[in-house]
Design brief:
Helix content is 59%, strand content 14%. By secondary structure, it is an alpha/beta fold. The chain folds into three domains: 204 residues, Cation efflux protein transmembrane domain (Alpha-lytic protease prodomain-like); 75 residues, Cation efflux protein, cytoplasmic domain (Alpha-Beta Plaits), CATH 3.30.70; 71 residues, Cation efflux protein, cytoplasmic domain (Alpha-Beta Plaits).
Length: 383
């Protein structure tokens, strides 16, 4: 049973605006760095700096993707997407990861060709060093602010984009070393630096692909987290056991499905209230949990079973048939059924009769119903 008041947490509007302002700033900086690295790299004969410029271009593309997907991912749930649109972030991160791996492959291929023909490669000049230093400072600054906002808003895509900024800053360090080495006479060092940048791009891309696929195929949370959640549920008052605990992620949100085992004699409303209570306790302790679907059980039904017991209408009909000669229909005021394993325990509320007749009446009715195969215990009450 899903809590009607439990919804996927949406990013507050001020945070959305902050995120979009950051993406706009990031886009402007990346565009500037793309021009700086490629133009300076071209005129300074620095293949590594041009590769770094391509890396920055991929950052620019991802900024645009994150901008679009951030707007889509924070839209309200609708009829076609009742859980919201957070999965669009995972799709975007998957596409981004694939693009990065492809870009890295092209960079490695080109760098290897240049290494083979290293004698014809021109030595880079000092402006390439200046461009690398500028890139290092700008991208490290973007990494810090993007990671902070991503962690604050719970956006995995923003955090991933932050690490992309960090990888670009680190790649500029590699470029700085490679260009510096080439200027000092070690020409092949710049090609090695370009290959190093490519491998860094590929690692970031593969990490994004892995995490995105895990979310899209509903991979469960870490075992330690699931164990902590289960312990919290088992410690809740009124819960006799918990099974079929399933977890999955949708963007920053965690979704749970659980079966709660409770006392079979309690009312439906009390069982539901226990489920509500468990949901509340989970939301207090695990802020990332935004939706809980619970099923109330009176036994461990983790394994599928064949349902052979009769429902209320049929059960009442069989009882009245067995008691046809002993109890007027109108004397059965109320019937409560307790389904337990392969039998049904029954509480029968009868019309009040003299105390001296109650024992005999109960004995006769119990004997008359003894042939009913699905009947477990039977209790009689008088109104």
């Amino acid at each position: 049973m899903t809590m009607p008041d439990q919804e996927i947490t949406k990013m507050p509007l001020p945070q959305q605006q902050q995120t979009r302002n950051l993406l706009l700033l990031s886009g402007v900086i990346d565009f500037t760095l793309v021009l700086l690295k490629i133009v300076v790299g071209w005129f300074s004969n620095s293949h590594a700096l041009i590769a770094d410029g391509i890396h920055s271009f991929s950052d620019l593309v991802t900024d645009i993707m994150v901008w679009i997907l951030n707007r889509v991912g924070t839209e309200e749930p609708d009829e076609d997407h009742p859980y919201g649109h957070a999965r669009f972030e995972a799709i975007g991160a998957l596409i981004l990861g694939a693009v990065l791996v492809i870009v890295a492959g092209f960079l490695v291929y080109d760098s290897v060709l240049r290494l083979i023909d290293i004698q014809s490669v021109e030595i880079p000049t000092w402006p390439a060093l200046v461009a690398a230093v500028v890139s290092m400072g700008a991208k490290e600054w973007l990494y810090q602010i993007t990671r902070n906002i991503g962690e604050k808003t719970g956006s995995n895509l923003l955090v991933a984009n932050a690490w992309h900024h960090r990888s670009d800053a680190l790649s500029s360090v590699i470029v700085l070393i490679g260009v510096g080495g080439a200027i000092l006479g070690v020409a092949w060092l710049e090609m090695v630096a370009a290959i190093g940048v490519a491998f860094m791009i590929a690692l970031v891309g593969l990490k994004l692909i892995k995490e995105s696929i895990e979310e899209l195929v509903d991979t469960a949370l870490a075992e330690s987290t699931v164990a902590d959640i289960q312990k919290t549920i088992e410690n809740a008052s009124g819960v006799h056991g918990v099974h079929s605990l399933r977890t999955r992620k949708m963007g920053p949100a965690v979704i749970l499905e659980i079966h709660l085992q409770v006392d079979p004699a309690i009312s439906v409303s009390e069982g539901h209230y226990i489920g509500d209570w468990v949901t509340q306790q989970l939301s207090y302790k695990f802020r990332e949990i935004n939706d809980v679907t619970f099923h109330i059980d009176i036994e461990d039904d983790a394994h599928a079973k064949v349902l052979t017991l009769p429902l209320r209408v049929e059960a009442r009909r069989e009882l009245l048939k067995a008691w046809n000669d002993h109890l007027p229909v109108e004397d059965m005021q109320k019937l409560t059924l307790h389904y337990l394993g392969e039998v049904i325990n029954i509480e029968v509320y009868l019309t009040e009769c003299p105390a001296a007749d109650k024992f005999e009446q109960q004995k006769v009715l119990a004997e008359a119903a003894a042939t009913i195969t699905w009947l477990g215990e039977i209790k009689f009450w008088y109104s």
